């Protein structure tokens, strides 16, 4: 036999030796890097199941069952299904991440793996081993599978393919598949003896055998035998569509699934109605196609024995048998449930609704699915009656073997049974830490092997259905739409809340006014509104309106606002026009900004003149990618930590090679509304080496401006940020700066527009720029290809984006542009 051991194929001899190392191996895996479920999702998304069809043929399955098995696996392993499963069962796509559930208190919770999770699979469910192993991977466990002896190698082959698609190697490190007979009890004992939990697929005998072999305290997760049935009221038991749907449930998989109906109950006490229905239903089964699999000799013996005994009881008036070539309908007037020998053998029995509790409650541990056919009021009442006696699933005839993504199995969530919920309660040293993992982990998830997508090609990434759309501000190109699902939005707003907490916003005490811009499908106001909502923070959602600065200033004073969320240009103008009122109030302690450069001189003025204690980036975020980075209490200027739970950030040179400084390229691993894989965001940055004083291990980068800050004119490459630096260093200037490029008669014209009343005389500024910016001087004075003009203008005359009001830093009005 061949066995799969952490990515390698080994023989019996090697497997026997390695079985004794399971304890040590478990220690290594659980103390090593944790397996992020996003790694599993990325690999499963690329899995080609069709290549494993020959293994199912070798298993002896009919073509119809092979198709059903592969289709079921494709659906269950699809990215949307796995994401929904993680969200519903464990509440997040990375549930092992130690995070707050309440931003007001440093209490952290997570779902963590149990350790070594053993899986004992059954031979009648080809997909079960793969699905159970994937659930074990999603919950982060080291998984060892004992596959059924009649498994043709399908389970191991599929899992080997899954591991091969993971470039991190972590999936392989968390997988062992052993193929041996249950008669090899020494192997079974050694495997189960090392396990922290065992998932058992099989009957009572298999579960009892496993329980006897595990060590004390081991969690036995039994996916044991279940009884499912249909229940029909008089309104629908003669309905032709209902009967055909029920026949499909009986014939699909030949009743091998736990959710297959073994009994059809009628809401009646009348024996005549039971016998009449059995005859009608037999005529429907007569029309079905041939079986997809044949019973074994022992199974045929059980079917024959059941039919013979039932025929004998006809003489007592209890039963009636309707048998055809491929089916058996066994009518029985007694209420008690009976298991079926399967293979299109089904009981028909009476069960008046008043007897549901007394008849079914003793069987509650075995009850699974009910196919309920009733009118609307009866459906509601009967559904409640069935769940009260232990039924775990209720659906309609024709859907008993179906399901939906994230559906509980046997009344529980599998991922919760494969995990432990843990908590860590700390003190105020962690007041601004949203996640403990940031203090312990530094790694980013790998990026897919795809080319970099330029910012101009952003629309090519929008190939998925979405729910909510935001418009970019248009400050770095033509406006476009960025697409999110509601799940994307909720996830990113939680991350945005984490960023705000890290940067020093305190939801316990701060009274916050949201002064970002709203309307026109612009994202900043609603995104910060949503992040503050998740923090349970006090918020005054005023919005940034240029024509209502007086009302805004008055609202700050009247409502004792002490924290502002805003754009730099807006808050500077607010203080410029209403500085006396705000200085007299003296209550603004914190300003968190985003979207624009905030000059060092402007920050110093607000601190020195108005007593603002904290002025820090609220987050590095874009409409395209959402929140990408955050500032900690130790960060200054434009330095941010990467939000590694959402993104991987690359810094690339012009040849798309990794570099210490260059273009920021973003891969978002959880975006559903559109792909965002290796997307050039339009900003420049550099990696910040060394450890951060805050203690977080996540990578840090410093923003160096936008790619649009660099422009060509008069055979020179100039940078908007260089103009800012000269003006700040030479004059302490902290107002708005706008570069305007125009066509001239014989040369380009470069206009430097500054705020009237805050800037030096234009002639003085021109002289300093020519003296301090050599490339400008060369173009103006030596090459005579450029004319320089400084213009001091009212702030209202500066060109801004229509939707957001953000300053357009470089306005290129040349015909060649």
List keywords for this structure.
7-stranded mixed sheet; Aldehyde Dehydrogenase, Chain A, domain 1; 25 helices; 23% strand; GMP Synthetase, Chain A, domain 3; single chain; alpha/beta; 37 strands; Aldehyde Dehydrogenase, Chain A, domain 2; 817 residues
Q: If you had to describe this structure to a student in words, what would you say it looks like?
A:
The protein is α/β, with parallel strands linked by helices and 817 residues long. Among the domains are: 3-223, 3-Layer(aba) Sandwich (Aldehyde Dehydrogenase, Chain A, domain 1); 227-395, Aldehyde Dehydrogenase, Chain A, domain 2, CATH 3.40.309.10; 714-812, GMP Synthetase, Chain A, domain 3, CATH 3.30.300. It is 33% helix and 23% strand. It is built from 25 helices and 37 strands. The chain has a seven-stranded mixed β-sheet with strand order 2-1-7-6-5-8-9, sandwiched between helices. A seven-stranded mixed β-sheet has the order 12-13-14-11-10-15-16, sandwiched between helices. A seven-stranded antiparallel β-sheet has the order 25-26-27-31-30-29-28, covered by helices on one side. Helix 20 packs across helix 21. It is elongated, with a radius of gyration of 34 Å. The termini are far apart. The mean pLDDT is 92.
């Amino acid at each position: 036999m061949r066995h799969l051991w952490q990515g390698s194929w080994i023989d019996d001899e090697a497997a026997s030796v390695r079985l004794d190392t399971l304890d040590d191996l478990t220690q290594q895996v659980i103390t090593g890097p944790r397996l992020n479920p996003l790694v599993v999702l990325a690999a499963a998304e690329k899995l080609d199941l069709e290549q494993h069809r020959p293994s199912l043929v070798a298993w002896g399955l009919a073509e119809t069952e092979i198709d059903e098995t592969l289709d079921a696996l494709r659906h269950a392993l699809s990215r949307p299904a796995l994401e929904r499963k993680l969200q519903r069962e464990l509440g997040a796509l990375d549930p092992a991440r130690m995070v707050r559930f309440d931003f007001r208190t440093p209490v952290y919770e997570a779902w963590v793996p149990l350790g070594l999770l053993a899986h004992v699979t059954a031979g009648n469910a080809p997909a079960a081993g793969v699905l159970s192993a994937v659930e074990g991977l999603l919950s982060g466990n080291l998984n060892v599978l004992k596959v059924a002896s009649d498994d043709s190698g399908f389970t191991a082959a599929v899992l080997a393919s899954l591991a091969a698609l993971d470039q991190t190697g972590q999936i392989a490190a968390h997988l062992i598949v052993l193929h041996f007979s249950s008669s090899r009890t020494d192997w079974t004992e050694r495997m189960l003896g090392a396990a922290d939990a065992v998932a058992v697929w099989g009957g009572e005998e298999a579960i009892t055998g496993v329980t006897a072999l595990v060590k004390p305290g081991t969690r036995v997760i039994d996916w044991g035998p279940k009884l499912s049935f249909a229940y029909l009221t008089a309104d629908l038991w003669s309905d032709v569509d209902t009967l055909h749907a029920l026949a499909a449930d009986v014939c699909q998989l030949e009743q091998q699934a736990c959710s297959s109906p073994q009994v059809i109950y009628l809401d009646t006490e009348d024996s005549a109605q039971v016998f009449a229905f059995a005859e009608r239903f037999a005529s429907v089964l007569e029309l079905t196609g041939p079986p997809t699999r044949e019973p074994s000799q022992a199974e045929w013996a059980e079917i024959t024995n059941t039919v013979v005994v039932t025929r004998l009881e006809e003489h007592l008036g209890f039963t009636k048998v309707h048998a055809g070539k491929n089916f058996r309908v066994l009518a029985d007037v007694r209420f008690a449930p009976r298991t079926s020998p399967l293979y299109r053998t089904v009981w028909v029995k009476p069960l008046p609704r008043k007897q549901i509790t007394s008849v079914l409650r003793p069987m509650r541990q075995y009850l699974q699915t009910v196919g309920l056919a009733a009118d609307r009021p009866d459906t509601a009442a009967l559904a409640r009656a069935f769940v009260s006696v232990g039924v775990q699933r209720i659906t309609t005839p024709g859907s008993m073997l179906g399901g939906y993504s994230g559906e509980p199995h046997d009344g529980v969530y599998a991922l919760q049974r494969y995990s432990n919920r843990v908590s860590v309660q700390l003190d105020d040293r962690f007041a601004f830490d949203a996640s403990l993992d940031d203090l312990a982990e530094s790694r980013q998830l790998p990026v897919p092997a795809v080319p970099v997508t330029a910012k101009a090609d952003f629309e090519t990434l929008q190939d998925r259905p979405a729910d909510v759309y935001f418009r970019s501000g248009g400050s770095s190109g033509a406006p476009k739409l960025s697409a999110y699902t509601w799940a994307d939005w909720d996830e990113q707003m939680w991350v945005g809340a984490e960023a705000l907490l890290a940067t020093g916003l305190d939801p316990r005490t701060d009274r916050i006014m949201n002064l970002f811009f709203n309307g026109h499908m612009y994202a900043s106001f609603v995104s910060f509104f949503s992040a503050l909502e998740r923090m349970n923070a006090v918020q005054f959602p005023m919005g940034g309106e240029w024509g209502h600065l007086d009302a805004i200033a008055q609202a700050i004073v009247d409502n004792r606002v002490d924290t502002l969320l805003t754009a730099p240009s807006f808050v500077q103008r607010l203080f410029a026009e209403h500085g006396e009122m705000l200085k007299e109030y003296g209550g603004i302690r914190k300003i968190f900004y985003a979207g624009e450069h905030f000059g060092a001189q402007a920050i110093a003025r607000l601190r020195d003149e108005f007593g603002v204690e904290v002025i820090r980036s609220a987050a590095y975020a874009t409409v395209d990618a959402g929140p990408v980075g955050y500032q900690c209490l130790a960060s200054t200027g434009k330095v941010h930590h990467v939000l590694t739970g959402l993104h991987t950030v690359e810094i690339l040179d012009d040849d798309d090679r990794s570099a210490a400084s260059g273009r920021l390229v973003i891969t978002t691993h959880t975006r559903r509304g559109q792909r965002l894989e290796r997307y050039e965001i339009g900003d420049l940055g550099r990696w910040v080496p060394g450890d951060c004083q805050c203690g977080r291990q996540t990578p840090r980068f410093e923003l160096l401006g936008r790619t649009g800050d660099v422009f060509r004119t008069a055979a020179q490459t100039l940078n908007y940020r260089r103009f800012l630096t000269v003006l700040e260093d030479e004059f302490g200037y902290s107002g708005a700066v706008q570069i305007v490029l125009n066509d001239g008669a014989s040369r380009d014209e470069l206009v430097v527009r500054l705020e009237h009343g805050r800037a030096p005389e234009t002639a003085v500024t021109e002289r300093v720029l020519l003296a301090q910016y050599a490339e400008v001087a060369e173009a103006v004075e030596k090459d005579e290809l450029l004319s320089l003009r400084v213009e001091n203008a009212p702030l209202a005359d500066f060109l801004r984006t229509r939707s957001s009001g953000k300053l357009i830093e470089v306005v290129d009005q040349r015909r060649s542009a």
